[in-house]
Amino acid sequence: MYSFHEGTKKIESPLCTDWGCSGKCSKEEHERIETHFINEYGAATVEFTDSKRINLSPSIILEKEDFRPKSFQ
Hints:
- The protein is an alpha+beta fold.
- It has one domain (13-72).
- Helices cover 21% and strands 22% of the residues.
- The chain is built from one helix and four strands.
- The protein has a two-stranded antiparallel sheet with strand order 1-2.
């Protein structure tokens, strides 16, 4: 996802709630999401932040159409 801040386009990490997390962020929910990103997108690392964001590497994964805001698809 992208956000525009002061005229620059920045990649925005996805929210875990957009990928099946209930918002309670249980270990099981995050393990399921992590497995999905590894198997489906080839993620090397999947980290969950306190702000319910998912940090993925390699970050090129976020360039895929699945991560574009619906208004840009």
